[in-house]
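[job 4471] stage=fold_predict status=RUNNING
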Amino acid sequence: MAITTEFVLQSSSLPLVSIPKTLQPDEIECIHALCFQPDVQEFTVQFNHEDDISRNDLLALEEVVKADSVGETSEKTIYKLIVELEESVSQALSPDFDGAQLEPTTITTEGWHETKVFKKYEAFNEFRKSCENHSISLDLISITSEPSSSDDSSQHGLTDRQREALNLAISRGYYESPRQVTAEELAKELGISQPSLSSLLRRGERQLITTSLDTQVPVDTISR
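[job 4471] inference complete, writing structure tokens
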């Protein structure tokens, strides 16, 4: 089952993270092909007109080898950059993780904000581990499943929030032995309290079990 993930990558080694700090735009939209070719050096970046960032400003950055103006839209100024990559970034992204980028990368002072789809949970976990092994932290914002039309798991009657909590718990190793993450850590990632997280998981688990076994459980029992 494919999953869609939203996360923030943080590391000083990531390309162009110096721009929000030195030139101080609120954010940068960036299109790159690192998920297909880990050693690619070409980045297409977009700035708001009010940021007033010139080609010379970009060439003054140590990591930028070449900068060419592509043109302007009604709201954006667009440049194509050739950037010198650090080896750790290429190594972190070099394996084939069966993933694809859904939206342009947004670069802020916090790091790289990305939305990617992976074929399965294991592929995302391998991507996360590879990043962390090369000193690139990954802060997961959300993870949702994208069941195929032939997948009966979408028919179990879970709420969106229950499905999100269960997907996160599975992807982070909560159900592994020994557990790879605590309920408190999962709750923090979802922005809820630990009791609320435990309740979501318990109700979701009960719904999956009762639906799979075709067993009816009283509503008042489920709501406890």
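[job 4471] summary: The helical segments are 18-22, 55-59, 87-93, 121-133, 160-171, 183-190, 194-212, 219-222.
[job 4471] exit 0
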